[in-house]
Write a structure and sequence with these properties.
alpha+beta, 31% helix, six-stranded antiparallel β-sheet, eight-stranded antiparallel β-sheet, 499 residues
Length: 499
């Protein structure tokens, strides 16, 4: 999961890019980067950390120009080294910078092709650099003139679609020529277009989530279609074209469960409304399975589960209370690098309000349960705060399989639901009862009145890898890379590149 933004404006876009990245910060806290172009001069600043920590006043002054792109990252492929912060840059043809959200499932094959046939060197372990070099090679093969046209970009993206497999939402900048964007043929990762009217004319932007565009004054236009490419030239003219042979919309359902902000709209579906409906269907299941329950209060595990928890409490007819206070300066726990670090962070991240637990039978609502590390400690915290019984409900189904499309979920053996029954999981985390959302109910909650979404990418729940190229050998290699004990723990440095 990463966040990307690209803008072609009438004036300097550096501050708009910065503000948009802060609105996308939830999509990645590992690193951030901005690249801008002014009079054929590219300036790139990137480094590890949050947006507010990477960019200083002198950086923002250097990042001048009316077009640029930005990226926030957490590592799905590769490591957290500063060299793998994005955007990535290649100087030929013309000079290209690119930011990528997703994961290429055939990155190793492409890397070999780039070295042996395309004569291009890959300097990091990131699949995003692979994707950039595939794009650069295909553009160069067209032998375009110095005046690159939208047609050149569309032909290049068409060639990229034929070579690349997996999930990819991409925003890039061609130095002095414009900003381009494209989405994989299944539309697994989200992307949306916006525009802003100024005295100098219309400005266009493309981003991962609608909230990033609305927050900087852009009006939403539409989602980028699966397989579609967008080119906004340096004069601010936008062109669009379908570049895939057989596109179909298969969005990642985990975006609605956890990844996206509730105030975003993805593929015409309100994330907030979807989470309300998740809570409604979850409450119905609780009433079916626990008709004589003794629940006194519903308490969300902040923040993502709040919306669903409100609807659960309403439909159960019990009180909703905020029982945990969140420290907002600790990152998301399931993407932290090691089990020890996650365990340590849970107590730092959440603090119980004892009076909401003392002497009560509590139903905790979580958006999802991945490793179970957080859930077990939170159940323990609720008991320590005086709860008589602690029940747990997940707004998502059991996470039983690794995600290969851009979410850094752990290896299968580290998923608490992998090869375990609900009863076994409840016992492991110490809950008096555990209920998961049904997958069909989750799909219905997102699909509601939106016939355009017929199929979802839900591999972490059902083990169905929609790109059709993920086999047991691939998953074994992925498992070896993702097991906590095998992860690269190099200390990240910092990058400042002036080009």
């Amino acid at each position: 999961m990463c966040g990307i933004i690209g803008i072609v404006g009438s004036n300097a876009v550096n501050h708009s890019l910065y503000d948009a990245l802060t609105l996308l910060q939830h999509r990645g806290q590992d690193a951030a980067g901005i690249a801008t172009c002014d009079d054929n001069r590219l300036v790139l600043r990137k480094g590890p950390g949050l947006v507010r920590d990477v960019f200083r006043n002198d950086d923002m002054q250097r990042l001048s120009g009316p077009m640029g792109i930005g990226h926030v990252r957490y590592p799905t492929a590769g490591t957290s080294a500063a060299a793998e912060s994005q955007p990535f840059y290649v100087n030929s043809p013309f000079g290209i910078v690119m930011g990528h959200n997703g994961n290429l499932t055939n990155a190793e094959v492409l890397k070999k092709e780039l070295f042996e046939s395309d004569l291009r060197h890959i300097n990091t372990r990131s699949d995003s650099e692979v994707l950039l070099n595939v794009f650069a090679h295909e553009l160069q093969a067209l032998k375009p003139s110095t005046q690159v046209t939208a047609t050149d970009i569309f032909k290049t993206v068409e060639a990229v679609h034929k070579r690349c497999k997996g999930a990819y939402a991409v925003i890039g900048l061609l130095v002095g020529r414009g900003v381009f964007a494209f989405r994989d043929p299944l539309g697994i990762r989200p992307m949306i277009i916006g525009k802003r009217e100024t005295e100098q004319g219309t400005e266009y932007a493309v981003a991962s989530e609608s909230v990033a565009l609305q927050g900087i004054g852009f009006t939403l236009v539409r989602d980028v279609d699966p397989g579609e490419a967008i080119f906004i030239d340096s004069q601010g003219q936008m062109s669009c074209q379908q570049c895939a042979e057989s596109p179909r919309l298969v969005p990642c359902i985990f975006e609605y469960v956890y990844l996206a902000r509730p105030d975003s709209i993805i593929d015409k579906v309100s994330v907030y409304k979807a989470r309300l409906r998740m809570g409604e269907s979850l409450a119905k299941k609780i009433l079916r399975e626990w008709p004589d329950n003794d629940i006194d209060v519903v308490i969300p595990i902040p923040d993502t589960s709040r919306t669903s928890a409100l609807e659960v409490a309403f439909n159960l007819g019990v009180k909703y209370r905020e029982g945990f206070i969140k420290n907002r300066y600790v990152g998301r726990t399931f993407i932290m690098p090691g089990q020890g670090e996650r365990k340590k962070s849970v107590r730092q991240k959440l603090s119980p309000v004892d009076l909401e637990f003392n002497g009560k039978n509590v139903l905790l609502i979580d958006d999802s349960i991945v490793r179970g590390t957080t859930s077990g400690q939170i159940v323990e915290m609720a008991r320590d705060a005086g709860a008589n019984k602690v029940y747990l409900a997940s707004a998502a189904p059991p996470v039983r399989y690794p995600n290969v499309y851009g979410i850094d979920m752990p290896a299968a053996p580290e998923l608490i639901a992998h090869n375990r029954s609900v009863e076994q999981i409840a016992d492991l985390i110490g809950a008096d009862g555990l209920i998961y959302q049904d997958l069909d109910d989750l799909k219905s909650a997102v699909q509601y009145n939106k016939a355009s979404i017929d199929v979802f990418e839900a591999c972490c729940f059902d083990g169905d890898y929609v790109t059709g190229d993920v086999d047991s050998e691939y998953l074994e290699i992925l498992e070896a890379e993702r097991l906590d004990g095998n992860k690269d723990k190099r200390t990240p440095g910092e990058d400042l590149v002036l080009l």
